[in-house]
Design goal:
35% helix, Rossmann fold, 183 residues, globular
Length: 183
């Protein structure tokens, strides 16, 4: 875990706009994000895994490594993820590249800083998620702010229902989990 923290800090210093966090996600946030996931979920896709803290939570919830696919843009994080999580598919590619997967994914878990992204990029990422998700499957996202992490116009365009999840106080900074589904 110390290696994860050092890698995170190094990447934060070299690419602060890409990281958009002051600390890696906590294990409590990882647990909250993975709540309800398990062997019954089937395929799970994670956007922006970074050092893999949310990945650990997903695997601890019972999702099989063979059922987990990661999309991470940073090559150094990608190498770290491959070495740390054998059996998990790691793509060094943007989240939007997930549209090449077969539809029917059981959940998309995202650690991406959506609210700090331009509207069109946010639209492309969330749109990609709902292109691959099975009907009724959740898009799970956290944010540090007081409002949902997907802009209202995108929620309306995609016809999404917002479910407020737990507030995770044991995270730096505290975070709230949201689940989005097609209405």
């Amino acid at each position: 875990m110390a290696q994860d923290t050092l890698l995170f800090l190094r990447q934060l210093l070299t690419s602060p706009r890409q990281i958009s966090a002051i600390a890696p996600s906590s294990r409590w946030l990882a647990r909250a994000m993975a709540q309800g996931l398990g062997p019954q979920t089937g395929r799970v896709v994670e956007f922006g895994p970074g050092t893999g803290q949310l990945t650990r939570g997903i695997l601890a919830a019972g999702v099989a490594p063979a059922d987990l696919t990661l999309f991470e843009m940073d090559a150094e994080f990608g190498s770290h993820l491959r070495a740390t999580f054998p059996g998990v598919t790691v793509n060094v590619a943007p989240a939007q590249a997930s549209t090449r997967l077969e539809p029917g994914v059981g959940a998309v878990v995202s650690g991406l800083p959506l609210l700090s992204m331009p509207l069109e990029l946010q639209r492309a990422i969330v749109g990609a998620a709902f292109t691959i998700l099975a009907p009724g499957a959740p898009y799970i996202q956290f944010t540090y702010g007081p409002r949902p992490p997907i802009r209202p116009e995108i929620i309306a365009e995609l016809g999404l229902k917002v479910e407020y999840g737990p507030q995770v106080w044991l995270n730096l900074p505290p975070a709230r989990v949201y689940r989005f589904r097609k209405a």
